[in-house]
Each structure stands twice: as structure tokens, then as C-alpha cells.
Amino acid sequence: MKAILTILMVLLLLAQIRLWHDVREIRGLRALVEQQLEENRRLDSRNEALAAEVDDLRAGLQAIEERARSELGLIREGEEFFIVVDPEAIDPQRLQDDAAADPDSPPDPDTDVLP
Question: Whole-model pTM above 0.90?
């Protein structure tokens, strides 16, 4: 009888160990599911924003013009373009050297004004 009781206790102990191992694994899987759901929500939000942008681009020229102005530097005929530069960002020695090299040429905004 003691042997049967001992065997049953060992089997119960093994079943408990397996049960708690499975419970721990389930908790880990639930955490992974939560992470994936959060990632999916983030990607859904991004997809909605991209879909809205595609609709805007398909719907009208204003969105296309706005994008061309911001990304490609579009300037319409008759418009004036101004660059506002921080005076502290200009290298005065470089401007003097460029002016001395060719005093009649206007400054090149790509190289003379910006550091």
C-alpha cells in the first residue's frame, strides 16, 4: 500500500510540474499575443494614414502640389522664393573668399549661404 501511495504521489508531483510549466508557457504566449496585437494596431493606424494620403493624391491636385512643393521645391511662375537663414550659421570667411573670387556673381544659395 505504501508503494502504491508513493507512486501516486510521484505521479501527482510530475503532473503538477507539467501543469505549472504549461501555465508559464501560456502566460508567455499571452504576452506575445498582446505584443502582436499592439503592433497590429500601430500598423493599422499607419495603413489608414497611408490610405488617406493615397485618396488625397487621387482626389485632387492640391495634395499633389503640396507634396511637390515640400519634397521637390516646386515654385510656380510669378512666385518669389525666399530663404531665411540664421546669420550665425553663415561662414563669413567663406562668403568673403567667394566674393573676392568673382565679385559680379550673385551668391549661390546651395553653397554660399548654407554651412
Answer: no
- Do residues 115 and 90 make contact, with C-beta atoms less than 8 angstroms apart? yes
* Closest by Cα among 99, 97, 95 to 113: 95
Alpha-carbon distance of 31 to 45, in angstroms, equals 21
The answer, yes or no, to whether residue 19 has pLDDT greater than 80, is yes
Question: Using CA atoms in the order 36, 42, 47, 53, what is the torsion angle rounded to 10 degrees?
Answer: -170
CA dihedral 38, 42, 43, 46 (to 10 degrees): 170
Whole-angstrom Cα distance, residue 115 to residue 90? 6
Between CA 12 and CA 17 the distance in angstroms is 9
